[in-house]
Prior knowledge:
The complex is a heterodimer of chains A (419) and B (161).
Chain A lengths: L4 H9 L10 E5 L2 E5 L3 H9 L12 E4 L9 H16 L4 E2 L8 H7 L8 E4 L13 E4 L2 H10 L1 E5 L3 E7 L8 H12 L8 E5 L8 H9 L8 E3 L4 H10 L17 E6 L6 E3 L7 E3 L10 E4 L1 H4 L2 H11 L9 E4 L4 H9 L2 H7 L3 E2 L20 E4 L15 E4 L2 H10 L9
Parallel strand pairs in A: 2-3, 2-5, 3-4, 5-6, 8-9, 8-11, 9-10, 14-15, 14-17, 15-16, 17-18
Antiparallel strand pairs in A: 1-7, 12-13
Helix pairs in contact in A: 2-5, 6-7, 10-12, 10-13
Chain B lengths: L1 E8 L6 H4 L10 H5 L10 H4 L5 E4 L11 H8 L4 E4 L4 H10 L3 E3 L1 H6 L5 E5 L4 E4 L4 E4 L5 H8 L3 H7 L1
Parallel strand pairs in B: 1-2, 2-3, 3-4
Antiparallel strand pairs in B: 1-5, 5-6, 6-7
Amino acid sequence: MGMTMTQKILAAHAHLASVEAGQLIEADLDLVLGNDITSPVAIKEMEKMNKKGVFDKDKIALVPDHFVPNKDIKSAEHCKCVREFARKNQITNYFEVGEMGIEHALLPEKGLTVAGDVIIGADSHTCTYGALGAFSTGVGSTDMAAGMATGKAWFKVPAAIRIVLTGKPSRWVSGKDVILHIIGMIGVDGALYKSLEFTGDGISHLTMDDRFTIANMAIEAGAKNGIFPVDDAAKTYMKEHSNRSYTVYEADADAVYDEEYTVDLSSLKSTVAFPHLPENTHTIDEVGDIAIDQVVIGSCTNGRLEDLRTAAEVLKGRHVAKGMRCIIIPATQKIYMDAMEEGLLKIFIEAGAVVSTPTCGPCLGGYMGILAEGERCVSTTNRNFVGRMGHVSSEIYLASPAVAAASAVTGKISGPEAL
Amino acid sequence: MNAKGTVFKYGDNVDTDVIIPARYLNSSDPAELAAHCMEDIDKEFIKKVKKGDIIVADKNFGCGSSREHAPIAIKAAGVSCVIAETFARIFYRNAINIGLPIIECPEAARGIQAGDEVEVDFDSGIITDLTRGTSFQGQAFPPFMQKIIAAEGLINYINRQ
């Protein structure tokens, strides 16, 4: 029986000729990731292990990004714990404030994730690296601890859903609109325990930043991972960012998929997910008049250079609405620098937006943009759960950078066409 | 191994942000996390929950963030078992890895009501609603996962290997 792309990567890392959906396997890990929220719990678990030390100091990435620069004393203690662990174990890929970024934007940029890898990360959006043709999935702190100690993890081989992308998206439609559309179509548990395998000629019209955004939110459909084929664009990206060799896996022609959907990219419109689930999607033309208080442009989903370029294109020569807060957060130091050199930051500041150092901050209600009672935010982040960005009665509308920037200008949820 | 307690009932898509809001994630102390468990959807939960009580929910319980703080908070609040129609996969892994018993059973998720007294036999997977006199067959864990649960978590399991 044929294997999916995900199954082939897992089989190779479990040293098996083939695997099938539902099979329990133990696979070798190419990278184990943790952040300042999840790593301290993992480090505490590691202390209980008989085996001391880490399996490979070059194959662990520790990225304090959620509550850094430290938002309070307790967060500072967590970061200190991670820093000391990294020092003690001589972790090569520990990224301090000043060289860090939001983990899922940072690791591909640093060349630490390539096609064919098996990667676990104690962060649910670890599935981002599927954009490069890697199997990557989010786990908890205990799995991270076991992974750091042994270099292995257990997996139940996932079944798959095939998403065929066709056509070319129109001007303001981005990867965010594609994935919100898919989540709206299959639901927040539509891909539970499964892989989302993307295929089709429409992929050639999606930039790498689009693909990172799409793979990033596979978890919002419940998926174990989201994965793209490795085409020239992906190869070029890896060549520009990594010295590591990579392996290209392709799904067998007779691979088995539980379900298949076709998405015509040319038919998609800017899409907004209403509170309080990413599946509550509406196209921009059916949104109506919804006044907002804040806009956030950033996060592991949409804080990349292309996202900032789009926001700048919309905000250039315009000003955020009176009384509106527009918070823009480049996802990494390099993106920040590139945005500065391209003049994007100047456009943002002249438009009345605030620009922050890289942090997950407001996405998960940490800091740098917490919402008060009853406030509404249009955000390029990934979750709009109850209380996610602040007060339990506040509301988050998930959208693309283009919609977020346009909404900042009008003060209500708007597409860039409305300007 | 058995669990027995009073049921707290919730609906679909109970996410880890409501199980333990991120504003409390500057701590990793189980007791401190437990003090805020479920507070954004049920402020009464932490006031009423007793040791051994059981959470029953509909589909996709524990969706969202990978924070292991979520099952840690539930376990530290005294909950002995979570029964749901389905679980989000990272929560499922995390619960097994820290030794919080969870069991998938759509019929039990539908049939059991808030406040019922429920008993769960983990060996057989049988869930009994003592209040209503009904019982349900939950999905038993594969042997590999049973070993992790029997070792009370992944770390102990690895230590014993």
